[in-house]
Amino acid sequence: MTLDLSPADRAKFATARRAVDFVEDGMRLGLGTGSTAAWMVRCLAARIRDEGLNITTVATSTRTAEQARSLGIKVVTLDEAKWLDLTIDGADEFDADLNLIKGGGGAHLQEKIVATASDRMVVIADPSKEVETLGAFPLPLEVLAFGLNASRTLVEQALTSLDVAGREAVLRMNGDQPYRTDEGNCILDLHLRRIGDPRQLSMVMNQIPGVVENGLFIDICDAVVIGHADGRTETRDIATGSIDERQIDLDAAFATLGN
Ligand SMILES: O=C[C@H](O)[C@H](O)[C@H](O)COP(=O)(O)O
């Protein structure tokens, strides 16, 4: 029963359930990472099982790969899949142009590679992720451990000439050790508060030696599905400007999960 779920989880489930409607038989699909994406993987597994769909997936983290495989979903590498039809992933923030901040879970490097190797990227989010201006959520930078402090100094220097409201670069920790990504790199979380020009910031950050990838997704996302705790969903498509509203029966949908 979805009544046992928190309002936040009901909203995540609603967006996830609506987004898997875009999956078609035979597709090669990118699977995002995070709590919303985890709901999507459960919904996808149910559709594959109930409809006998032939779906090949590429995961954006070891976490997601393990979850997908445990639910019987076929997972291959991106090089094996070559190219993807669709990627469905969560986000930490999105704006009116569907530019995103991602990487709250430390997976934005693989997520960006997978999303840009897809014909289409659909973001799944609850309404709290929508912002007028990106930047309240700290922007993650994946950075090589080698020369980390030098890279951090260069990042903070570069930020002084950019249109942002804060400059603090905080090393993400896992207990008393630096957090390590799937690639073995570190994460600097940039507390910028407001990002005036996301495109410029993204380009400048990726020019700094040691920075592997930043969490800004500019002109990558094609549509967002916003889910609400009462089962309402709204899908906005950036290319057509269309808005599609659907009501998900959360209890009925939950009963189909079986996982
Ligand atoms: O690295 C993590 C990813 O970018 C996630 O998609 C993002 O942090 C959103 O996660 P959640 O759905 O848990 O809010």
UniProtKB/TrEMBL annotation:
Keywords: Isomerase. It is an enzyme of class 5 (isomerase). GO terms for biological process: D-ribose metabolic process; pentose-phosphate shunt, non-oxidative branch. The active site is at 111 (proton acceptor). Pathway: Carbohydrate degradation; pentose phosphate pathway; D-ribose 5-phosphate from D-ribulose 5-phosphate (non-oxidative stage): step 1/1. Its EC number is 5.3.1.6. GO terms for molecular function: ribose-5-phosphate isomerase activity. GO terms for cellular component: cytosol. It catalyses: aldehydo-D-ribose 5-phosphate = D-ribulose 5-phosphate. Substrate binds at residues 33-36, 89-92, 102-105, 129. It holds the Pfam family Rib_5-P_isom_A. It comes from the Bacteria. Gene3D superfamilies: 3.30.70.260, 3.40.50.1360. Belongs to the ribose 5-phosphate isomerase family. Catalyzes the reversible conversion of ribose-5-phosphate to ribulose 5-phosphate. Homodimer. This is Ribose-5-phosphate isomerase A. It comes from Pseudooceanicola albus.
